[in-house]
Design brief:
Layout (H helix, E strand, L loop, with lengths): L1 E5 L4 H12 L3 E6 L10 E5 L16 E4 L8 H16 L7 E5 L3 H4 L4 H21 L5 E7 L8 H4 L2 H9 L9 H14 L7 E4 L14
Parallel strand pairs: 1-2, 1-4, 2-3, 4-5, 5-6, 6-7
Helix pairs in contact: 1-7, 2-4
Length: 217
């Protein structure tokens, strides 16, 4: 299948792209940075997803995964508005099989930065809106909402021993997910899953049970 993924330069998006490629799918990546993925099944476009008038033109895709996001940098414009631009351009058509939005555990708890929580909360509602509209094509749309993930963007707290201890005290499983673990969830929800739709799937190691947010000042 043809899969379009935003935010593939590193972290979760890169792991998702690599998993789909390893399973024989054709992957199109969009990111404002370059990509280190070197595979004949992968095409990379450098593009700011906020620029809706200059998004790349491509043949229709079977699966769309909205992964690109930011924290404390035009969160609503990038995490929500641009996600909507991408979805409306590439995801709403009669050949679509599945759409997945990468949300956040913070959308469920509100325990993070205000605009970040608002942007990811909007993703939850928009996911349900899209699920209703693509159901007529037999397609699914869900959000995958991770808690802590071991990505470069989170290194400021991962490498701080004091903060890391506090974070682990708030995480019942006493660890964060790897990008590869989140990629496996993304694959399941878009390829294996055919019936679950309009749902916001929280994958956070039990973090939301405690409802406390720890971060670097």
């Amino acid at each position: 299948m043809r899969v379009l993924i935003s935010g593939t330069s590193q972290g979760i998006g890169k792991a998702i792209a690599e998993l789909f490629i390893s399973n024989g799918h054709t992957v199109i990546g969009i990111d404002r940075q370059g990509s280190s993925i070197d595979n004949e099944k992968y095409t990379h476009y450098i593009c700011d997803i906020r620029d809706k008038d200059n998004l790349p033109e491509t043949d229709s895709v079977d699966i769309l995964i909205n992964n690109a996001g930011t924290q404390n940098e035009d969160d609503i414009d990038i995490n929500l508005k641009a996600l909507i631009y991408i979805t409306e351009k590439y995801g709403i058509h009669d050949n679509i099989k599945s759409i997945l939005n990468i949300g956040s555990a913070s959308a469920h708890t509100g325990s993070e930065f205000p605009e970040y929580c608002a942007s990811k909360g909007g993703v939850l509602s928009y996911t349900k809106n899209v699920a209703i509209r693509v159901a007529k094509y037999g397609a699914t749309c869900n959000s995958l909402d991770p808690g802590g993930v071991l990505t470069p963007l989170n290194e400021c707290v991962i490498n701080d021993k004091v903060l890391w201890e506090q974070i682990m005290n708030e995480t019942p499983l006493k660890r964060w997910a790897t990008p590869e673990e989140i990629a496996e969830w993304a694959y399941f929800l878009t390829v294996t899953n055919k019936f679950c739709t309009g749902q916001n799937i929280l994958v956070d190691g039990g973090e939301a049970i405690n409802y406390n947010f720890v971060w670097k000042e």
